[in-house]
Amino acid sequence: MEKTKTNVTVKGQSKPDLGFMKLWNISFGFFGVQIAFALQSSNISRIFSTLGADPHQLGYFWLLPPLLGMIVQPLVGFFSDKTWTRFGRRIPYLFIGSAFAVAVMCLLPNAGNLGLSGNEVFWGLTGAMAFGLFALMFLDASINMAMQPFKMMVGDIVNEKQKAKAYSIQSLLCNAGNFVGFLFPIVLTWLGVSNTAPDNVVPDSVKWAFYGGSIILILCVIYTTINVKEYDPEQMARFREAELEKEKKITGSKASTGKRAFKVFAAVALVQFFCWAAFQLMWVRSNDAVSILGFNVDTTIPLYAKGDAYQAAGNWLGVLYAIQAVVSILWAMMIPRFKSLKVVYALSLTIGGVGFLLLPYCSHQYLLIIPYAMSGFAWAAMLALPFTLVTNALEGNPRMGTYLGLFNCTICLPQLVIAGTDKHIFEAVGAANNQPYMLAIAGISLLLGALSVFLIAQRKKAVAE
Hints:
Layout: H1 20-50, H2 64-81, H3 91-105, E1 120-122, E2 125-126, H4 127-157, H5 163-190, H6 204-227, H7 233-251, H8 257-295, H9 308-334, H10 341-358, H11 369-394, H12 400-407, H13 409-428, H14 436-452
Antiparallel strand pairs: 1-2
C-alpha cells in the first residue's frame, strides 16, 4: 500500500502536492473514530434517560465530554509537537487514544447490568448512572485523544493549496462514520436484536452497536498507522523555512505570521461558539424532541423514557442523524468548488439555521427529515472549513499541534456553556413537551454564526509562490 510520505532534500522547499490516496490515508482512521463519537453523541441522552435520569438534569450529563476535550486535546497538541518517534509524531497518541476508547465502549452501555441501579450514591445519581458517568468521562477523553492527531497530521503533511481538499476528505470520512454509527442501533433492531430491555437496562441494540463500533474503530486506526508516514524533524524544518520566505514575500516580514494567525483564530473562534452551541442543543434535546413530534410521547409523564415509543424514537433519531450525515457527505464534496471559503461557510450555516427554526413545526416523524437534512449543510462546513482557515494561517508554525489543541477549546467551550445552562433554557421554553423549541434556539445560534463568518480575514496570496 502507498505510504503517505515524500522525501525532501532541497533547503526551504515547500510541501509537495499529494495524490488522492495519500490524502485519503491520512484521514481514513477518522472514519472509525467518528463512529465512536456518533454512538456517544446520539446515545448519551438515551442511555441516561433509560437509567432513570431526570429530564431537567439531562444537560448536566453532557458537561464531561467538552470539559475533557478542553483538557485532553491541548495536551495532546502540546506533547505531540515535541514527540518524534520511529512511529511518527502524532500517530502514537492516535493509537493509544483509540485503544482506550475500544475498552470503554464495551463498558458504558453495560452500566445498567452491574446491579447498581435503584440506590442513590451521590447528587441524586444511582450507582448505574454514576458508573455510566465515569465511563463516559474516560470514553470522551480517549476519543478526543484519538481525534486530534488526524487534524494535526493534515496541518503537518498537506500544503496550503490542498488543505481545503484534505479537510473535505476528512469531513466526508467523518460523516460516513457518523452515518454508520447513527444507524447501528436501528439496523441491529431490523436484524432481530432486541430494542427493549428491563427497567434501568440499556437495550441490546445499543450495546451491540457499541461493540461493533469499537471493532471498526481499531481496524481503521491500524490502517492509518500502517499507511501514513509522517515527515521527520529535518523535513519539517525545511518546510518551515519555505513558509517564512513566502510570508516575507506577502508582508515584507517574517514576523507577522503569529499576528495574522491570532486574528484568524479569534474570528473563527466566534463562529465556532455559535455553531457548536447549536449542535450541543441538538445532541442534548433531539431524543426528546423527536419522541414528542414524531412518536407522541408525553414527556410530562414520569418514567416516559422506559416506554417502547421512546426507544423507537431513539432509533429514528439515528436515522435522522444518518440523513444529516449523507447530506454532509454530499455537501463536503461541493465545498472545494467554491472560490470563497467564507461565502460557502456562511451559506452552509444559514441553511442549517433555517432548518432548525422549522423543526418545531414538523409534527410527523417523516417531516423531521427536512430540518435534520438541512442541518447537514452546516455540519459539513463546521468539520471542514474552520480547520482549513486556521491551519492555513498557521502554515509553517512549529507549534501547530499546540495551537490546534487550543483551537479545540473553541469547540468544547460552547458545548460546556450549553451543558451548564441547558436546565435554564429547558425551563425558559416551558420545559417538558416544548423541548422542540430548544432546537429553534439552536437555529438562531447558527444564523448568528453565519453573520460572524464575515469577520474572518483570509490570507492574501503571494505574487509568486
